[in-house]
Write a structure and sequence with these properties.
Layout: H1 6-13, H2 18-31, E1 35-38, H3 43-55, E2 60-61, E3 67-70, E4 89-93, E5 106-108, H4 109-120, E6 128-136, E7 145-151, H5 154-163, E8 165-166, H6 168-173, E9 180-186, E10 190-191, E11 196-197, E12 204-208, E13 213-217, H7 222-225, H8 227-242, E14 246-248, E15 251-255, E16 264-269, H9 276-280, E17 286-289, E18 293-297, E19 303-307, E20 311-315, H10 325-331, E21 337-340, E22 343-345, E23 348-350, E24 361-364, E25 367-370, E26 389-393, E27 410-419, E28 428-430, H11 434-442, E29 445-447, E30 459-461, H12 474-486, E31 493-498, H13 515-526, E32 532-535, E33 538-541, H14 543-554, H15 560-567, H16 571-586, H17 593-613
Parallel strand pairs: 1-6, 3-21, 4-5, 4-12, 7-9, 9-13, 16-27, 27-31
Antiparallel strand pairs: 2-3, 6-7, 6-8, 10-11, 12-13, 14-18, 15-16, 15-17, 18-19, 19-27, 20-26, 21-26, 22-23, 24-25, 28-31, 29-30, 32-33
This protein binds oxalic acid and manganese (II) ion (MN).
Manganese (II) ion (MN) is lined by residues 249, 272, 291.
Protein backbone atom coordinates (compact mmCIF):
# COMPACT_ATOMS: atom_id res chain seq x y z
CA UNK A 1 0.00 0.00 0.00
CA UNK A 2 1.18 3.51 -0.82
CA UNK A 3 1.64 5.42 2.43
CA UNK A 4 0.08 8.50 0.86
CA UNK A 5 -2.82 7.94 -1.51
CA UNK A 6 -3.89 9.97 -4.52
CA UNK A 7 -6.48 12.04 -2.67
CA UNK A 8 -4.03 13.11 0.00
CA UNK A 9 -1.32 13.74 -2.51
CA UNK A 10 -3.67 15.97 -4.47
CA UNK A 11 -4.38 18.02 -1.32
CA UNK A 12 -0.67 18.58 -0.89
CA UNK A 13 -0.07 19.39 -4.54
CA UNK A 14 -2.90 21.94 -4.55
CA UNK A 15 -0.75 24.12 -2.29
CA UNK A 16 1.80 24.54 -5.09
CA UNK A 17 4.53 24.94 -2.52
CA UNK A 18 7.85 23.23 -3.03
CA UNK A 19 9.07 23.85 0.50
CA UNK A 20 5.97 22.15 1.93
CA UNK A 21 6.58 19.23 -0.40
CA UNK A 22 10.24 19.04 0.55
CA UNK A 23 9.59 19.12 4.30
CA UNK A 24 6.87 16.49 4.02
CA UNK A 25 9.05 14.17 1.92
CA UNK A 26 12.04 14.57 4.19
CA UNK A 27 10.18 13.74 7.37
CA UNK A 28 8.11 10.95 5.90
CA UNK A 29 11.29 9.21 4.86
CA UNK A 30 12.88 9.83 8.23
CA UNK A 31 9.96 9.02 10.56
CA UNK A 32 8.51 6.21 8.40
CA UNK A 33 4.80 6.40 9.26
CA UNK A 34 2.58 3.63 7.89
CA UNK A 35 0.09 6.13 6.47
CA UNK A 36 -0.01 9.88 5.76
CA UNK A 37 -3.20 11.93 5.86
CA UNK A 38 -3.43 15.54 4.78
CA UNK A 39 -6.00 17.64 6.61
CA UNK A 40 -7.54 20.67 4.89
CA UNK A 41 -9.85 23.25 6.48
CA UNK A 42 -12.95 21.20 5.55
CA UNK A 43 -15.29 20.05 8.31
CA UNK A 44 -15.02 16.52 6.97
CA UNK A 45 -11.24 16.48 7.45
CA UNK A 46 -11.50 18.04 10.90
CA UNK A 47 -14.10 15.46 11.95
CA UNK A 48 -11.72 12.77 10.75
CA UNK A 49 -9.08 14.02 13.21
CA UNK A 50 -11.56 14.08 16.11
CA UNK A 51 -12.78 10.58 15.36
CA UNK A 52 -9.32 9.09 14.92
CA UNK A 53 -8.23 10.48 18.33
CA UNK A 54 -11.04 8.41 19.84
CA UNK A 55 -10.56 5.31 17.66
CA UNK A 56 -6.88 5.19 18.58
CA UNK A 57 -7.62 5.62 22.29
CA UNK A 58 -5.70 8.89 22.59
CA UNK A 59 -8.94 10.46 23.74
CA UNK A 60 -11.83 8.80 25.54
CA UNK A 61 -15.41 10.04 25.26
CA UNK A 62 -17.05 11.36 28.42
CA UNK A 63 -20.70 11.66 29.40
CA UNK A 64 -21.30 15.19 28.14
CA UNK A 65 -21.48 15.70 24.41
CA UNK A 66 -18.18 16.91 22.93
CA UNK A 67 -16.16 16.12 26.08
CA UNK A 68 -13.16 13.81 25.88
CA UNK A 69 -10.27 12.99 28.20
CA UNK A 70 -6.64 12.44 27.26
CA UNK A 71 -3.83 11.08 29.43
CA UNK A 72 -0.13 11.84 29.19
CA UNK A 73 2.53 9.37 30.28
CA UNK A 74 3.00 8.62 33.97
CA UNK A 75 5.38 6.19 35.60
CA UNK A 76 6.02 7.75 39.01
CA UNK A 77 5.32 11.15 40.58
CA UNK A 78 8.77 12.25 39.44
CA UNK A 79 9.02 10.41 36.11
CA UNK A 80 6.22 11.49 33.85
CA UNK A 81 5.13 13.55 30.85
CA UNK A 82 2.67 15.82 32.64
CA UNK A 83 4.50 19.12 32.29
CA UNK A 84 6.94 21.06 30.14
CA UNK A 85 10.35 19.41 30.00
CA UNK A 86 12.77 22.33 30.34
CA UNK A 87 15.86 20.14 30.56
CA UNK A 88 15.37 18.42 27.22
CA UNK A 89 14.17 21.50 25.40
CA UNK A 90 17.21 22.95 23.68
CA UNK A 91 17.75 25.89 21.40
CA UNK A 92 20.12 24.94 18.59
CA UNK A 93 22.75 27.61 17.97
CA UNK A 94 26.07 27.83 16.10
CA UNK A 95 29.12 26.75 18.11
CA UNK A 96 30.42 30.29 18.54
CA UNK A 97 27.17 31.33 20.28
CA UNK A 98 27.16 28.55 22.85
CA UNK A 99 28.43 30.67 25.74
CA UNK A 100 26.45 33.80 24.98
CA UNK A 101 23.13 33.02 26.63
CA UNK A 102 23.55 32.10 30.30
CA UNK A 103 19.78 31.69 30.86
CA UNK A 104 18.94 29.64 27.81
CA UNK A 105 19.42 25.91 27.28
CA UNK A 106 21.53 25.90 24.16
CA UNK A 107 23.17 23.16 22.17
CA UNK A 108 25.42 23.24 19.18
CA UNK A 109 23.16 23.04 16.15
CA UNK A 110 24.98 20.32 14.22
CA UNK A 111 25.32 18.12 17.28
CA UNK A 112 21.69 18.63 18.30
CA UNK A 113 20.35 17.90 14.85
CA UNK A 114 22.40 14.74 14.56
CA UNK A 115 21.12 13.53 17.91
CA UNK A 116 17.44 14.27 17.37
CA UNK A 117 17.34 13.09 13.76
CA UNK A 118 18.78 9.80 14.92
CA UNK A 119 16.13 9.49 17.63
CA UNK A 120 13.45 10.36 15.05
CA UNK A 121 14.56 7.69 12.62
CA UNK A 122 11.51 5.41 12.30
CA UNK A 123 9.75 7.11 15.27
CA UNK A 124 6.35 6.98 13.52
CA UNK A 125 6.60 3.28 12.72
CA UNK A 126 3.10 1.75 12.52
CA UNK A 127 1.59 5.19 13.16
CA UNK A 128 -0.54 7.35 10.91
CA UNK A 129 0.94 10.80 10.38
CA UNK A 130 -1.28 13.82 9.88
CA UNK A 131 -0.22 16.95 8.05
CA UNK A 132 -1.92 20.11 9.18
CA UNK A 133 -1.87 23.77 8.19
CA UNK A 134 -2.65 26.64 10.55
CA UNK A 135 -2.50 30.39 10.84
CA UNK A 136 -0.91 31.87 13.97
CA UNK A 137 -3.02 35.01 14.37
CA UNK A 138 -6.19 36.27 12.65
CA UNK A 139 -6.74 35.58 8.95
CA UNK A 140 -5.63 38.42 6.64
CA UNK A 141 -3.65 40.14 9.31
CA UNK A 142 -0.28 41.84 9.23
CA UNK A 143 0.50 40.06 12.50
CA UNK A 144 -0.02 36.49 11.37
CA UNK A 145 2.45 33.74 10.54
CA UNK A 146 1.55 30.44 8.88
CA UNK A 147 2.52 27.11 10.41
CA UNK A 148 2.77 23.53 9.20
CA UNK A 149 2.45 20.68 11.68
CA UNK A 150 3.26 17.02 11.07
CA UNK A 151 2.37 14.72 13.95
CA UNK A 152 1.49 11.11 14.65
CA UNK A 153 -0.68 12.16 17.59
CA UNK A 154 -4.35 12.75 16.85
CA UNK A 155 -4.67 14.32 20.30
CA UNK A 156 -2.10 16.91 19.24
CA UNK A 157 -3.85 17.46 15.90
CA UNK A 158 -7.26 17.74 17.57
CA UNK A 159 -6.00 20.14 20.26
CA UNK A 160 -4.60 22.37 17.54
CA UNK A 161 -8.03 22.52 15.88
CA UNK A 162 -9.48 23.93 19.05
CA UNK A 163 -6.55 26.24 19.73
CA UNK A 164 -5.54 27.62 16.29
CA UNK A 165 -7.09 29.06 13.18
CA UNK A 166 -7.30 26.82 10.15
CA UNK A 167 -4.66 27.71 7.53
CA UNK A 168 -4.78 25.30 4.59
CA UNK A 169 -6.42 27.91 2.35
CA UNK A 170 -3.93 30.51 3.64
CA UNK A 171 -1.03 28.31 2.58
CA UNK A 172 -2.39 28.43 -0.96
CA UNK A 173 -2.06 32.22 -0.82
CA UNK A 174 1.64 31.91 0.07
CA UNK A 175 2.28 31.58 -3.60
CA UNK A 176 5.08 29.10 -3.15
CA UNK A 177 6.95 31.13 -0.51
CA UNK A 178 8.81 29.41 2.34
CA UNK A 179 7.66 32.06 4.86
CA UNK A 180 6.16 29.69 7.42
CA UNK A 181 7.19 27.88 10.60
CA UNK A 182 7.10 24.11 10.71
CA UNK A 183 6.82 21.58 13.48
CA UNK A 184 7.47 17.86 13.41
CA UNK A 185 6.18 15.88 16.35
CA UNK A 186 6.04 12.22 17.22
CA UNK A 187 4.82 10.55 20.43
CA UNK A 188 7.33 7.84 19.59
CA UNK A 189 6.79 4.27 20.67
CA UNK A 190 3.60 3.90 22.72
CA UNK A 191 2.71 1.67 25.62
CA UNK A 192 -0.45 0.78 27.56
CA UNK A 193 -4.09 1.62 27.20
CA UNK A 194 -4.67 4.54 26.85
CA UNK A 195 -1.50 4.68 24.76
CA UNK A 196 1.28 6.86 26.20
CA UNK A 197 4.87 7.58 25.21
CA UNK A 198 7.13 4.78 26.34
CA UNK A 199 10.65 6.17 26.08
CA UNK A 200 10.53 9.34 28.14
CA UNK A 201 14.31 9.13 28.55
CA UNK A 202 14.54 9.88 24.84
CA UNK A 203 12.18 12.87 25.01
CA UNK A 204 13.71 15.74 23.04
CA UNK A 205 12.38 19.12 21.92
CA UNK A 206 14.90 20.95 19.75
CA UNK A 207 14.37 24.43 18.41
CA UNK A 208 16.10 25.09 15.13
CA UNK A 209 16.06 28.88 14.76
CA UNK A 210 17.96 28.82 11.51
CA UNK A 211 15.29 26.80 9.72
CA UNK A 212 12.30 28.24 11.62
CA UNK A 213 11.31 24.77 12.79
CA UNK A 214 10.97 22.66 15.92
CA UNK A 215 11.47 18.92 16.18
CA UNK A 216 9.80 17.20 19.13
CA UNK A 217 9.84 13.48 19.89
CA UNK A 218 8.81 10.99 22.60
CA UNK A 219 6.25 13.14 24.35
CA UNK A 220 2.54 13.95 24.38
CA UNK A 221 2.05 16.72 26.96
CA UNK A 222 0.83 19.70 24.94
CA UNK A 223 3.49 22.09 26.26
CA UNK A 224 6.07 19.75 24.69
CA UNK A 225 4.18 18.35 21.71
CA UNK A 226 1.94 21.02 20.19
CA UNK A 227 4.14 22.86 17.74
CA UNK A 228 1.99 25.93 17.60
CA UNK A 229 2.03 26.61 21.33
CA UNK A 230 5.24 27.12 23.27
CA UNK A 231 7.42 25.84 20.42
CA UNK A 232 6.12 28.46 17.98
CA UNK A 233 6.38 31.09 20.71
CA UNK A 234 10.14 30.57 20.66
CA UNK A 235 10.32 30.97 16.89
CA UNK A 236 8.09 34.04 17.20
CA UNK A 237 10.39 35.58 19.81
CA UNK A 238 13.36 35.06 17.51
CA UNK A 239 11.63 36.68 14.57
CA UNK A 240 10.18 39.56 16.59
CA UNK A 241 13.51 40.42 18.18
CA UNK A 242 15.26 40.40 14.83
CA UNK A 243 12.53 42.64 13.43
CA UNK A 244 10.72 45.37 15.36
CA UNK A 245 7.80 43.81 17.15
CA UNK A 246 7.11 41.75 20.27
CA UNK A 247 6.14 38.09 20.71
CA UNK A 248 5.10 37.67 24.33
CA UNK A 249 3.71 35.22 26.86
CA UNK A 250 0.73 37.55 27.28
CA UNK A 251 -2.99 37.25 27.80
CA UNK A 252 -5.14 39.98 26.27
CA UNK A 253 -8.28 41.10 28.08
CA UNK A 254 -10.92 43.78 27.70
CA UNK A 255 -11.36 45.73 30.95
CA UNK A 256 -14.82 47.20 31.45
CA UNK A 257 -15.07 49.42 34.52
CA UNK A 258 -18.54 49.76 35.99
CA UNK A 259 -20.39 52.99 35.29
CA UNK A 260 -17.95 54.20 32.60
CA UNK A 261 -18.66 54.40 28.92
CA UNK A 262 -15.20 53.13 27.97
CA UNK A 263 -13.39 49.80 27.70
CA UNK A 264 -9.64 49.27 27.58
CA UNK A 265 -7.42 46.38 26.60
CA UNK A 266 -4.69 45.04 28.82
CA UNK A 267 -2.01 42.42 28.25
CA UNK A 268 -0.44 40.44 31.04
CA UNK A 269 2.40 37.99 31.55
CA UNK A 270 2.58 35.57 34.44
CA UNK A 271 4.59 32.35 34.74
CA UNK A 272 2.47 29.21 34.35
CA UNK A 273 0.07 28.53 37.20
CA UNK A 274 0.31 32.05 38.64
CA UNK A 275 -3.18 33.37 37.90
CA UNK A 276 -2.77 34.37 34.27
CA UNK A 277 -5.83 32.69 32.78
CA UNK A 278 -7.94 33.59 35.78
CA UNK A 279 -7.00 37.26 35.38
CA UNK A 280 -8.01 37.18 31.72
CA UNK A 281 -11.27 35.51 32.81
CA UNK A 282 -12.20 37.90 35.61
CA UNK A 283 -15.97 38.32 36.05
CA UNK A 284 -17.45 41.26 34.13
CA UNK A 285 -14.45 41.49 31.78
CA UNK A 286 -13.83 39.99 28.33
CA UNK A 287 -11.11 37.73 27.02
CA UNK A 288 -9.22 38.01 23.75
CA UNK A 289 -6.51 35.52 24.66
CA UNK A 290 -4.96 33.82 27.65
CA UNK A 291 -1.44 32.87 26.66
CA UNK A 292 0.47 34.20 23.64
CA UNK A 293 0.27 37.55 21.86
CA UNK A 294 2.08 39.38 19.10
CA UNK A 295 2.36 43.18 19.38
CA UNK A 296 3.16 45.81 16.80
CA UNK A 297 3.49 49.58 16.78
CA UNK A 298 0.36 50.81 14.99
CA UNK A 299 -0.34 53.95 12.93
CA UNK A 300 -2.59 55.36 15.67
CA UNK A 301 0.42 55.56 18.05
CA UNK A 302 -0.75 52.67 20.23
CA UNK A 303 0.69 49.19 20.54
CA UNK A 304 -1.76 46.78 18.90
CA UNK A 305 -1.93 43.16 19.85
CA UNK A 306 -3.48 39.93 18.57
CA UNK A 307 -3.99 36.56 20.17
CA UNK A 308 -2.19 34.09 17.93
CA UNK A 309 -4.45 31.37 19.33
CA UNK A 310 -8.22 31.02 19.46
CA UNK A 311 -8.55 28.62 22.36
CA UNK A 312 -7.30 27.97 25.87
CA UNK A 313 -5.10 25.17 27.18
CA UNK A 314 -5.73 26.06 30.78
CA UNK A 315 -4.81 24.68 34.18
CA UNK A 316 -7.94 23.15 35.66
CA UNK A 317 -6.76 22.98 39.29
CA UNK A 318 -8.84 25.28 41.50
CA UNK A 319 -11.36 26.09 38.77
CA UNK A 320 -14.62 26.03 40.71
CA UNK A 321 -18.05 27.62 40.63
CA UNK A 322 -17.12 30.24 43.23
CA UNK A 323 -13.74 31.50 42.00
CA UNK A 324 -13.98 31.00 38.23
CA UNK A 325 -17.70 30.90 37.46
CA UNK A 326 -17.41 31.50 33.70
CA UNK A 327 -14.92 28.77 33.00
CA UNK A 328 -16.49 26.34 35.47
CA UNK A 329 -19.81 26.71 33.71
CA UNK A 330 -18.21 26.18 30.29
CA UNK A 331 -16.40 23.06 31.49
CA UNK A 332 -19.48 21.46 32.96
CA UNK A 333 -21.81 21.90 29.98
CA UNK A 334 -21.73 20.09 26.61
CA UNK A 335 -19.31 21.54 24.04
CA UNK A 336 -16.03 20.49 22.41
CA UNK A 337 -13.55 20.18 25.29
CA UNK A 338 -10.51 18.00 25.90
CA UNK A 339 -9.66 17.35 29.53
CA UNK A 340 -6.26 15.99 30.36
CA UNK A 341 -4.87 14.14 33.37
CA UNK A 342 -8.05 14.49 35.48
CA UNK A 343 -9.96 11.82 37.42
CA UNK A 344 -12.91 10.26 35.59
CA UNK A 345 -15.69 8.40 37.34
CA UNK A 346 -18.85 7.33 35.49
CA UNK A 347 -17.97 9.60 32.57
CA UNK A 348 -17.58 12.76 34.70
CA UNK A 349 -14.29 14.59 35.36
CA UNK A 350 -12.97 15.66 38.73
CA UNK A 351 -9.92 17.74 39.52
CA UNK A 352 -8.12 19.30 42.47
CA UNK A 353 -10.01 22.26 43.91
CA UNK A 354 -13.19 21.75 41.85
CA UNK A 355 -15.36 22.37 44.92
CA UNK A 356 -17.09 18.98 44.55
CA UNK A 357 -16.94 15.76 46.51
CA UNK A 358 -14.10 13.65 45.08
CA UNK A 359 -14.97 10.01 44.33
CA UNK A 360 -12.85 7.41 46.14
CA UNK A 361 -11.76 5.78 42.90
CA UNK A 362 -11.88 6.10 39.14
CA UNK A 363 -9.52 6.41 36.23
CA UNK A 364 -6.75 9.00 36.29
CA UNK A 365 -3.28 9.60 34.85
CA UNK A 366 -1.99 6.58 36.80
CA UNK A 367 -4.67 4.28 35.20
CA UNK A 368 -7.02 2.84 37.84
CA UNK A 369 -6.87 5.09 40.84
CA UNK A 370 -8.15 4.65 44.39
CA UNK A 371 -7.78 6.87 47.43
CA UNK A 372 -4.37 6.41 49.07
CA UNK A 373 -2.78 4.87 45.94
CA UNK A 374 1.02 5.24 45.95
CA UNK A 375 3.57 5.15 43.15
CA UNK A 376 6.60 2.83 43.01
CA UNK A 377 8.50 5.28 45.19
CA UNK A 378 5.76 5.23 47.87
CA UNK A 379 4.67 8.73 46.94
CA UNK A 380 0.93 9.30 47.16
CA UNK A 381 -0.80 9.86 43.83
CA UNK A 382 -3.38 12.66 43.91
CA UNK A 383 -6.74 12.06 42.22
CA UNK A 384 -5.88 14.52 39.43
CA UNK A 385 -2.53 15.92 38.41
CA UNK A 386 -1.87 19.47 39.72
CA UNK A 387 -1.06 20.39 36.11
CA UNK A 388 -4.21 18.73 34.70
CA UNK A 389 -5.67 20.85 31.89
CA UNK A 390 -8.66 21.67 29.73
CA UNK A 391 -8.62 22.65 26.07
CA UNK A 392 -11.56 24.76 24.90
CA UNK A 393 -12.32 27.33 22.20
CA UNK A 394 -12.56 30.94 23.38
CA UNK A 395 -15.72 31.42 21.34
CA UNK A 396 -17.38 28.82 23.56
CA UNK A 397 -17.18 31.25 26.46
CA UNK A 398 -19.78 33.87 27.36
CA UNK A 399 -17.01 36.40 28.01
CA UNK A 400 -15.27 36.04 24.62
CA UNK A 401 -14.33 39.49 23.33
CA UNK A 402 -15.77 40.38 19.89
CA UNK A 403 -12.27 41.45 18.76
CA UNK A 404 -10.84 37.94 18.94
CA UNK A 405 -10.42 37.73 15.16
CA UNK A 406 -9.88 41.43 14.46
CA UNK A 407 -6.98 41.53 11.95
CA UNK A 408 -5.86 44.90 13.37
CA UNK A 409 -5.76 43.49 16.89
CA UNK A 410 -6.74 45.69 19.82
CA UNK A 411 -4.97 48.80 21.12
CA UNK A 412 -3.22 48.10 24.40
CA UNK A 413 -3.53 50.53 27.32
CA UNK A 414 -1.82 48.57 30.04
CA UNK A 415 0.46 45.63 30.71
CA UNK A 416 0.43 43.57 33.90
CA UNK A 417 3.37 41.45 34.99
CA UNK A 418 3.12 39.04 37.89
CA UNK A 419 4.88 36.30 39.75
CA UNK A 420 4.38 34.02 42.71
CA UNK A 421 6.14 36.00 45.39
CA UNK A 422 5.33 35.32 49.02
CA UNK A 423 7.23 38.10 50.77
CA UNK A 424 8.56 41.01 48.70
CA UNK A 425 6.36 42.90 46.23
CA UNK A 426 2.97 44.49 47.07
CA UNK A 427 -0.17 43.34 45.20
CA UNK A 428 0.14 46.06 42.55
CA UNK A 429 2.74 48.70 41.62
CA UNK A 430 2.59 51.06 38.65
CA UNK A 431 5.73 51.97 36.78
CA UNK A 432 6.92 55.57 36.49
CA UNK A 433 7.48 55.40 32.70
CA UNK A 434 7.91 52.82 29.91
CA UNK A 435 11.55 51.97 30.65
CA UNK A 436 10.77 51.60 34.33
CA UNK A 437 7.94 49.30 33.24
CA UNK A 438 10.34 47.21 31.18
CA UNK A 439 12.50 46.94 34.30
CA UNK A 440 9.49 45.88 36.40
CA UNK A 441 8.74 43.11 33.90
CA UNK A 442 12.37 42.11 33.63
CA UNK A 443 12.72 41.77 37.39
CA UNK A 444 9.74 39.49 38.01
CA UNK A 445 10.57 36.63 40.38
CA UNK A 446 8.38 33.62 40.91
CA UNK A 447 8.32 30.41 42.90
CA UNK A 448 8.20 27.33 40.62
CA UNK A 449 4.95 25.39 40.06
CA UNK A 450 3.77 22.05 38.71
CA UNK A 451 3.55 23.34 35.11
CA UNK A 452 7.21 22.44 34.60
CA UNK A 453 9.09 19.32 35.64
CA UNK A 454 11.23 19.67 38.78
CA UNK A 455 10.89 20.88 42.37
CA UNK A 456 8.05 23.24 43.24
CA UNK A 457 8.35 26.43 45.31
CA UNK A 458 11.88 27.46 44.30
CA UNK A 459 12.29 31.23 43.73
CA UNK A 460 13.39 31.88 40.14
CA UNK A 461 13.89 34.94 37.97
CA UNK A 462 11.12 35.17 35.39
CA UNK A 463 11.73 38.17 33.09
CA UNK A 464 8.39 39.02 31.47
CA UNK A 465 7.35 35.45 32.44
CA UNK A 466 9.04 34.62 29.17
CA UNK A 467 12.42 33.23 30.25
CA UNK A 468 11.38 29.61 29.66
CA UNK A 469 10.82 30.49 26.03
CA UNK A 470 13.72 32.88 25.46
CA UNK A 471 15.87 32.29 22.39
CA UNK A 472 17.77 35.59 22.15
CA UNK A 473 20.02 37.27 24.72
CA UNK A 474 18.13 39.11 27.44
CA UNK A 475 20.10 42.22 26.51
CA UNK A 476 18.75 42.14 22.98
CA UNK A 477 15.25 41.37 24.25
CA UNK A 478 15.22 44.33 26.65
CA UNK A 479 16.64 46.65 24.01
CA UNK A 480 13.85 45.59 21.65
CA UNK A 481 11.30 46.44 24.35
CA UNK A 482 12.91 49.80 24.95
CA UNK A 483 12.90 50.67 21.24
CA UNK A 484 9.34 49.42 20.84
CA UNK A 485 8.18 51.83 23.54
CA UNK A 486 10.10 54.71 22.01
CA UNK A 487 8.20 54.31 18.77
CA UNK A 488 4.81 54.51 20.51
CA UNK A 489 3.00 57.77 20.96
CA UNK A 490 0.94 56.18 23.72
CA UNK A 491 3.01 53.49 25.43
CA UNK A 492 0.92 51.24 27.68
CA UNK A 493 1.18 51.81 31.42
CA UNK A 494 3.03 48.91 33.00
CA UNK A 495 2.11 47.33 36.36
CA UNK A 496 3.72 44.62 38.49
CA UNK A 497 1.21 42.48 40.37
CA UNK A 498 1.62 39.88 43.06
CA UNK A 499 -1.36 37.72 44.02
CA UNK A 500 0.66 35.50 46.34
CA UNK A 501 1.83 37.68 49.20
CA UNK A 502 1.72 35.81 52.53
CA UNK A 503 1.91 36.88 56.16
CA UNK A 504 4.56 35.65 58.60
CA UNK A 505 2.67 32.42 59.31
CA UNK A 506 2.31 31.60 55.62
CA UNK A 507 -1.32 32.65 55.10
CA UNK A 508 -2.20 34.36 51.79
CA UNK A 509 -3.03 38.01 52.35
CA UNK A 510 -5.48 38.21 49.44
CA UNK A 511 -8.56 36.39 48.24
CA UNK A 512 -8.54 34.90 44.73
CA UNK A 513 -10.90 37.51 43.29
CA UNK A 514 -9.11 40.53 44.83
CA UNK A 515 -7.19 40.78 41.56
CA UNK A 516 -10.32 42.24 40.00
CA UNK A 517 -9.79 45.35 42.13
CA UNK A 518 -6.12 45.64 41.12
CA UNK A 519 -7.06 45.38 37.44
CA UNK A 520 -9.84 47.95 37.68
CA UNK A 521 -7.52 50.28 39.59
CA UNK A 522 -4.84 49.89 36.90
CA UNK A 523 -7.36 50.66 34.18
CA UNK A 524 -8.52 53.73 36.09
CA UNK A 525 -4.91 54.94 36.34
CA UNK A 526 -4.71 55.03 32.55
CA UNK A 527 -7.42 57.73 32.65
CA UNK A 528 -6.24 59.45 35.86
CA UNK A 529 -9.36 58.33 37.73
CA UNK A 530 -7.26 57.64 40.82
CA UNK A 531 -4.38 59.34 42.57
CA UNK A 532 -1.44 57.21 43.68
CA UNK A 533 1.39 57.20 46.21
CA UNK A 534 4.92 57.43 44.86
CA UNK A 535 7.31 54.90 46.44
CA UNK A 536 10.88 53.90 45.56
CA UNK A 537 9.53 51.02 43.44
CA UNK A 538 6.73 52.91 41.66
CA UNK A 539 3.18 54.11 42.36
CA UNK A 540 0.83 52.23 44.68
CA UNK A 541 -2.92 52.76 45.22
CA UNK A 542 -4.42 54.95 47.93
CA UNK A 543 -6.43 53.19 50.60
CA UNK A 544 -9.77 54.93 50.05
CA UNK A 545 -9.80 54.15 46.33
CA UNK A 546 -9.26 50.47 47.01
CA UNK A 547 -11.83 50.47 49.80
CA UNK A 548 -14.41 51.84 47.34
CA UNK A 549 -13.41 49.33 44.63
CA UNK A 550 -13.62 46.35 47.01
CA UNK A 551 -17.11 47.45 48.03
CA UNK A 552 -18.26 48.14 44.48
CA UNK A 553 -16.82 45.03 42.80
CA UNK A 554 -16.63 42.38 45.51
CA UNK A 555 -18.99 43.74 48.14
CA UNK A 556 -16.13 43.37 50.60
CA UNK A 557 -15.15 45.59 53.48
CA UNK A 558 -11.48 46.29 52.76
CA UNK A 559 -9.86 47.07 56.10
CA UNK A 560 -7.14 49.60 56.68
CA UNK A 561 -5.02 46.96 58.49
CA UNK A 562 -5.23 44.74 55.41
CA UNK A 563 -4.17 47.58 53.15
CA UNK A 564 -1.22 48.40 55.42
CA UNK A 565 -0.11 44.76 55.55
CA UNK A 566 -0.39 44.35 51.79
CA UNK A 567 1.02 47.65 50.58
CA UNK A 568 3.77 48.33 53.13
CA UNK A 569 7.13 48.80 51.46
CA UNK A 570 9.71 46.25 52.59
CA UNK A 571 13.09 47.91 51.92
CA UNK A 572 15.24 45.02 53.14
CA UNK A 573 13.41 42.44 51.08
CA UNK A 574 13.31 44.75 48.07
CA UNK A 575 17.03 45.50 48.31
CA UNK A 576 17.75 41.77 48.49
CA UNK A 577 15.62 41.34 45.40
CA UNK A 578 17.59 44.04 43.57
CA UNK A 579 20.81 42.22 44.47
CA UNK A 580 19.42 39.02 42.94
CA UNK A 581 18.31 40.88 39.83
CA UNK A 582 21.71 42.50 39.52
CA UNK A 583 23.51 39.16 39.90
CA UNK A 584 21.36 37.67 37.19
CA UNK A 585 21.76 40.45 34.65
CA UNK A 586 25.47 40.89 35.33
CA UNK A 587 25.93 37.49 33.73
CA UNK A 588 24.40 38.85 30.54
CA UNK A 589 26.25 40.79 27.91
CA UNK A 590 24.61 43.77 26.20
CA UNK A 591 22.13 44.71 28.94
CA UNK A 592 21.01 48.22 27.93
CA UNK A 593 22.10 51.21 30.00
CA UNK A 594 18.54 52.19 30.99
CA UNK A 595 18.18 48.95 32.92
CA UNK A 596 21.13 49.71 35.22
CA UNK A 597 19.95 53.29 35.65
CA UNK A 598 16.54 52.18 36.85
CA UNK A 599 18.08 49.55 39.13
CA UNK A 600 20.58 51.94 40.70
CA UNK A 601 17.99 54.64 41.14
CA UNK A 602 15.63 52.22 42.85
CA UNK A 603 18.40 51.00 45.12
CA UNK A 604 19.31 54.55 46.20
CA UNK A 605 15.70 55.41 46.96
CA UNK A 606 15.22 52.23 48.97
CA UNK A 607 18.41 52.83 50.94
CA UNK A 608 17.23 56.34 51.77
CA UNK A 609 13.85 55.04 52.88
CA UNK A 610 15.48 52.36 54.98
CA UNK A 611 17.72 54.77 56.80
CA UNK A 612 14.86 57.22 57.36
CA UNK A 613 12.53 54.72 59.04
CA UNK A 614 14.63 51.72 59.88
CA UNK A 615 11.53 49.46 59.88
CA UNK A 616 11.15 46.14 58.13
CA UNK A 617 7.81 47.23 56.74
CA UNK A 618 6.95 50.86 56.09
CA UNK A 619 3.28 51.72 56.02
CA UNK A 620 2.05 53.56 52.91
CA UNK A 621 0.60 56.17 55.27
CA UNK A 622 4.16 57.19 56.17
CA UNK A 623 5.19 57.78 52.58
C1 LIG B 1 1.12 27.07 29.53
C2 LIG B 1 2.44 27.23 30.18
O1 LIG B 1 0.65 25.94 29.38
O2 LIG B 1 2.93 28.37 30.19
O3 LIG B 1 0.52 28.07 29.16
O4 LIG B 1 2.99 26.24 30.68
MN1 LIG C 1 1.68 29.83 29.14
Amino acid sequence: MEIIDETNLAKLKALKNETVQKVVNEFISLCKPSKVTVITDSQEDINYVRNRAIELGEEIKLKLNGHTVHYDGFFTMSNHDQARDKKNTQVLVPKNELDLYPWINTMEREKGLKEILEIMEGCMKDHECVIRFFCLGPINSKFSILALQMTDSFYVAHSEDILYRAGYEEFKKLDGSDEFFYFIHSSGELTGDPPVTKNLDKRRIYIDLKEGRVLSVNNQYAGNSLGLKKLALRLGIYKANNEDWLAEHYFIMGVHPKGKKRSSFFCGAFPSACGKTSTAMLPGQTIVGDDIAYLRVWEDGFAHSVNIEKGIFGIIKDVNAKDDPVIFDALTTPRETIFSNVLVKDGTCYWIGDGRITPDDGMNFSANWYKGKKDKNRKEIPHAHPNARYTIGIEELDNADPNLHNPDGVSIHGILYGGRDSDTMPPIVESIHWEHGVFLGASIESETTSATLGAEGVRMQQPMANLDFMVVSLGKYLKNHQEFGKRLKYPPKVFATNYFLKNKIGKYLNGILDKLCWVIWAEGRVYDDFKAIKTPIGYIPEYLDLKALFKQYLNKDYKKEDYIQQFSIRPIKLLEKLDRVETMYKKEKWVPEFFWNVLNNQRNLLLKLKSKFNYEEISPFLL
